[in-house]
Amino acid sequence: MVLPLSGITSLSNRAYKESADGMVLPLSGITSLSNLLYIDKATTTGEKPTWVLVGGQRNSPVEYKADSIDGSHKTSGGWGETLAGPKSWSISYTGLLVMDDAALSIMEYAFHHDIPIHVKIAYPDKTCQTGWVTISDFTKDVSHDGVATVAATLNGKGPISEIAADDVTGG
């Protein structure tokens, strides 16, 4: 049943939100299985992105930070004052090592050749965020008694986009 809602409301003490396509969705937690990391395999900056899903994903949290700047002064009453400084963001990717995975190959190549790559985090409500990253860590763990995994740190190069409608998820 679709209810004509605008913004957020409460029905039967549960919060709901209207999605872009008019569906009423409960405002509850989402499983992280629905949040997916994509890599743009386009070869030039001006090309339309061609998104490739990173295979074997387990976790890819997006972290936002701001440097702390000490704004304390003699008349601050003995209390410290902290100002937000330059902001940054990063993704700490972990997943299975999937053989012949195009996105993992792009990530490893970008690490070895110091090339920034375009990434997208797709959310289950058909929204996404995009941004450019450099890879500062790329680790393959191929232990003798476990599944082979990959871990990579993707550091934002400039701002990450606001959350917006995801026009095309796949490539």
Q: How do the strands and helices of this protein lay out in sequence?
A:
Layout: E1 8-11, E2 14-18, E3 24-26, E4 36-40, E5 51-53, E6 57-59, E7 62-70, E8 82-96, H1 102-112, E9 117-122, E10 127-141, E11 149-156, E12 164-165
Q: What does this protein look like?
A:
The chain has 171 residues and is mainly beta. 6% of the residues lie in helices and 46% in strands. It is built from one helix and twelve strands. Strands 4, 5, 6, 7, 8, 9, 10, 11 and 12 form a nine-stranded antiparallel sheet that branches. It is globular and about 60 Å long. The protein starts with 7 loop residues before the first strand and ends in a 6-residue tail after the last strand.
Which key terms come to mind for this protein?
1 helix, nine-stranded antiparallel beta sheet, three-stranded antiparallel beta sheet, mainly beta, 171 residues
Number of strands: 12
> In percent terms, what proportion of residues is strand?
over 45%
Uncertain residue ranges: 1-14
Give the SSE string.
EEEEEEEEHEEEE
How many separate helices? Answer: 1
Summed over residues and divided by their number, the pLDDT gives a mean of: 85
Helix content: under 10%
Helix and strand content put the structural class at: mainly beta
Tell me the span between the first and last alpha carbons: 33 Å
The biggest beta sheet reads: 9 strands, antiparallel
* Rg over alpha carbons: 20 Å
**Judging from the principal axes of the Cα atoms, what is the shape?**
globular
